[in-house]
Write a structure and sequence with these properties.
Low-confidence stretches: none
Order of helices and strands: HHHHHHHHH
Radius of gyration: 19 Å
Distance between the termini: 48 Å
Mean pLDDT: 76
Largest sheet: none
Shape: elongated
Helix content: over 70%
Length: 210
Amino acid sequence: MLAEVISLETIQDIAQHYGYWAVFGGILLENLGIPLPGETVTLVGGFLAGSGQLSYWFVLGSAILGAVIGGTCGYWIGRYAGWSFLLKLGKFLRIPETKLEQIKAQFSENAGKAVFFGRFVALLRVFSGLLAGIAEMPFGQFFLYNLVGAIAWASVMVTLAFFVGRVVALEQLIAWVGQFTLVAFGLVAAWLFIPPWLEARKTKELESGE
């Protein structure tokens, strides 16, 4: 994420200067697949609301709106151009198309859960909309999970920063949230990649035993 490049002080300055637009734009661009620190901007917005500089409800609304619109745009990008791009990337990284098909199928089987819980997972929050489009998840179903997930995620992040930010340093709060999302990413990655790997290994053993 670009959070390591853009300092927290800079993000705070942007949030203080642009207010709700910074929260809306940060999470919107992040959900379009651009690795911007949307989560950090949202936490900063909640923190500023807790200190009385911004309105809690407007920060929350900005985060939800940015997440929903960004996720929806990401979905349509993935629906129309994502799979062909993924195939090209797979060839470049020497990943067999069959393996990509397995990952796509694994995502499709649990697309709703992935879109909802992906809000709370580092990187998956950035790409869940794109992946849902690539997997050709029905748009109505995607929109519902995207909306509910955006409301749940924004409510947790903004409320956490609003209240906890009063007793814990903002830097520490962001560090804790970052650690949680990285652990969650590891668990999701294992969920996506280990079953296909075990299945391929089992198939290989059966073929070698014949």
